[in-house]
Design brief:
The protein is α/β, with parallel strands linked by helices and 290 residues long. It has a single domain (24-288), classed as Arginase, Chain A. It contains eight helices and ten strands. It has helices at residues 44-52, 84-100, 115-125, 154-162, 177-186, 196-202, 238-250, 272-288; strands spanning 24-29, 58-59, 64-65, 71-76, 104-109, 130-134, 167-172, 189-192, 210-216, 254-261. The strands form two sheets. It has an eight-stranded parallel β-sheet, with helices on both faces. Strand 6, helix 4 (154-162) and strand 7 form a beta-alpha-beta unit. Helix 3 (115-125) runs parallel beside helix 4.
Length: 290
């Protein structure tokens, strides 16, 4: 499947039919090959698309309508089951093609390791970029049970690539002691527990910068997002995450791409996780794609 082919399955609500006209491209990364607890996030992209059909196309938060946004849903990257190394290479190649075509990439995961190859591709084009990371977990391990390719390692890998001083994590409430020590000593920014208020304080310091944003749905309290592989009690509300998305939209940051990961439909019996995720994606499209 080419990255610019029409997708025959369900697409995100009001997706356009022409790749060439699109400013933004939604794409799925159905990978959960390295998860450490509950699998199933490879089914997340499809379920987010299905849940989007229940959305209103208008955002009262941003006073914008999806009909005002040219975007294209390219479907899922056909990743090879059980092969993380090849899957990551394919994702990196895919993003490089999107950037060559001047598109804003908006990815749907999938486990959080998928963010690593995206940032690798982004960094080639934007070597002065920074990362906003919204998550329950630090993801700063160097390996998990001897495996360096793990969904618990992407932010540590990104720190090594773009420099820890260019990494800003919010909502973190889980990790090894060594991960929190690394964050403290390396020069990266980590805000524990909350997202919206710490982000509000940091945004002026990022003024004008090129930023990639990655959101792990498990930053939410499990009551708001039970459908995820590694749920963590003590999280943020859906409204707080919406506030964060809106603050980024209203800032003067140059958002160069984004992803939303770790929706696992098997544990989402009320579908509230996919419904929330689809709304976040709508706000990201309307607020971050300039």
């Amino acid at each position: 499947m080419r990255f610019d082919e029409a997708y025959s399955g369900k697409v995100f609500i009001m997706s356009g039919s022409e790749f060439e006209k699109a400013k933004a491209v939604i794409y799925g990364m159905p990978m959960d090959w390295t998860v450490s607890f509950r699998p199933g996030s490879r089914f997340g992209p499809g379920r987010i698309r299905e849940a989007s059909l229940g959305l209103e196309e208008y955002s009262p938060y941003l006073d914008k309508h999806l009909e005002e946004m040219d975007f294209f849903d390219a479907g899922d990257i056909p990743l090879p089951f059980g092969n993380p190394a090849r899957s990551l290479d394919m994702i990196e190649e895919y993003i490089e093609k999107l950037l060559e075509n001047g598109k804003f990439p908006l990815g749907l995961g999938g486990e959080h390791l998928v963010t690593w190859p995206i940032v690798q591709a982004m960094y080639k084009k934007y070597p002065d970029m920074a990362l906003i990371h919204i998550d329950a977990h630090a993801d700063l391990r160097e390996e998990y049970e001897g495996e360096s390719l793990s969904h618990s390692t992407p932010i540590r890998k990104i720190c090594g690539l773009i420099g820890p001083e260019n990494v800003y994590s919010f909502g973190i409430r889980s990790g090894m002691r060594e991960e929190f020590q690394f964050a403290k000593e390396s020069g990266m920014h980590m805000s524990k527990f909350e997202v919206a208020q710490p982000l509000k304080k940091i945004l002026p310091h990022l003024s004008g910068r090129k930023i990639y944003v990655t959101i792990d749905i498990d930053v939410l309290e499990p009551a708001y997002a039970p459908g995820t592989g590694t749920a963590e009690a003590g999280g943020n509300t859906s409204n707080e995450l919406l506030q964060a998305i809106q603050m980024i939209a209203e800032s003067d940051l140059h958002i160069i791409g984004s992803d939303l990961v770790e929706v696992a439909p098997a544990y989402d019996h009320s579908e509230k996780t996919a419904i929330a995720a689809s709304k976040f994606v709508r706000e990201m499209l309307l607020g971050w794609v300039k």
